[in-house]
Amino acid sequence: MTQPLVPVILSGGAGRRLWPLSTEEQPKQFLKLWPGGRSLFQMTLERIGALDTAPPVIIANVRQAGLIGDALAVVGGEDASLLLEPLRRDTAPAIAAAAVHVHDRFGPDTVMAVLPSDHVIDDHASFAGAMDVACAAAGDGFLCTFGIPPTRPASEFGYIELGAQVSGLSNVLHIARFVEKPDADRAAQLVEAGGHLWNSGMFVFRVDAFLAEAEAYMSDGLDAARHAVRGATADPGSSGLVLDAQAFARAPAISIDYAVFEKSGQAAVVPAGFDWSDLGNWASVHDSLGGDIATGGDARVLDSDTVLALSDGIPLRVLGVTGLAVIASADGVLIVGLDRAAEVKRLLDGA
């Protein structure tokens, strides 16, 4: 592949399912819960640092500029470009803005790898191998995503139904259809049927190919993104550029899956051979920390099984329980069964 590869890191979300530690001011990608006091954002930068890429482009909410600057200083990422969203508009406008920026800076044949900043992938070698496959497909004009082989009938992920093998490309398949996040019964049916992968939310494509599909399927959003990027102004508190707020507000708030990928005839999937978690709830965090009893901060657990106990400073003591996440913070306290952790957002929404 002769085109440059530019990683685009998405860091706009608030991670509400990890309340009360994850908040608007300190979203989950900046929580330092993992070994060595690292955050998911730092781990993402480390993962792409092992690839042969141009400096990354980071697109994030303007409120995160300071957190991103601190993280970049730790891992030596000061050469990254920072695009700051003045308001949240979901992934389609964010990716469109990043694509316009990459097009203008690196050229239309540049390959972009769009990577959320809150995933855990420990097998960097397998990730790099899958990225090579996706880049080859992107060079042929395909818009690629990575599909994750399901390990359980999860209702918190969207699914991809596999189509035929793409001619001339090993381990790249056409996408028969996208399946929205199913209920538990439907998820079990999909896993049992086979031929379905979890939608990872990671994407690889050539910029000109993406912009052509975006023009066809989300022209209003793409036009808003163009004006937002080309009207951007310097952020006085960081080295970033703040997208023009009036233009960016005109972009419909919609995910890239709905806006482009589900409609495009050029969408393809690379089945991933690497471990993956999107840390979407406290049960996933418990699993990623690798222990039956997982603790952090001033937390102690005795005579218990399958427990996650985390505190950001408040003394937390847990005794004689099973299957719970107990999270204590100055912003609140959460006690939830690990088997119900995916439902935390219901509490926050008042359901």
Characterise this structure.
By secondary structure, this protein is an alpha/beta fold. The protein contains eleven helices and 17 strands. The strands form three sheets. A five-stranded mixed barrel has the order 5-8-6-7-11. It has a four-stranded mixed β-sheet with strand order 12-14-16-17, with helices on one face. Helix 1 crosses helix 2, helix 3 (91-106) crosses helix 7 and helix 6 crosses helix 7. The longest helix has 16 residues, at 91-106. The radius of gyration is 20 Å and the shape is globular.
Annotation keywords:
351 residues; 4-stranded mixed β-sheet; globular; 11 helices; alpha/beta; 5-stranded mixed beta barrel
Order of strands in the sheet with most strands:
5-8-6-7-11
- Main sheet, how many strands, which sense, barrel? 5 strands, mixed, barrel
Mean pLDDT: 93
Helix- and strand-based class? Answer: alpha/beta
Q: Report the count of strand segments.
A: 17
Q: Report strand %.
A: 25-35%
**How far apart, in Å, are the first and last alpha carbons?**
50 Å
Contiguous runs where pLDDT drops below 50 for at least 5 residues: none
Question: Which overall shape is indicated by the principal axes computed on the Cα atoms?
Answer: globular
Count every helix, treating DSSP H or I runs of 4 or more residues as helices: 11
- What quaternary form is this? single chain
Helix and strand element order? EHEHEHEHEEEHEHHEEHHEHEEEEEEH
Bin the helical content. Answer: 25-40%
Q: Give the radius of gyration.
A: 20 Å
